[in-house]
Specification:
Blueprint lengths: L1 E4 L4 H9 L12 H14 L6 E4 L3 H14 L3 E3 L17 H7 L20 H16 L7 E5 L1 H8 L8 E6 L5 E3 L3
Parallel strand pairs: 1-4, 2-3, 2-4
Antiparallel strand pairs: 1-5, 5-6
Amino acid sequence: MILLRHGQSEFNLHFDATGIDPGIADAPLTPLGHRQAEAAARHLEREDLRRILCSPFTRALQTAAPIAAHLRVPVLVTPAVRERRAASCDVGTCRTDLARAWPHLDLGLVDEVWWHEDEEPHHAFMERATAFGADMAGDPDWGHTLVVCHWGFIMAVTGRSVANGAWVRCHVDADGRLAAADP
């Protein structure tokens, strides 16, 4: 399994430059972020990927779109891999509007409001990430799955920090949990 951090978003661009939350809800990708998604699509064509699990945030959906088209694999949108609600960019777009913008995607796992209204407690976020890892470790297709998600989620599952557009390959460890593969 591969965990891919979405491409650079408008939030990332402004926050990285200033250290201040710019107040951009559900931030879209920047032009660089779109290029990062296209580059990931080209690099990932050598992998035996059969599906994409994707966060419902716009930046993740925009990252997954060219990869899915290039690899010709389905995308399942799941809030299980969303970022922890801690900044303005972690306020999402409601399911109805996502369905209008992305009519070809499977949004069956997405509630109308799928993000935390307030900051998500850290323990709840870690429980969600741990449950996802345990579920995936038991999934027979885990090794053929790309997960398009976020920095905090990847950090919670693997303990690794990755840049926008970068990814971490995972394996199932001796305890039956997902873990980052050695670099």
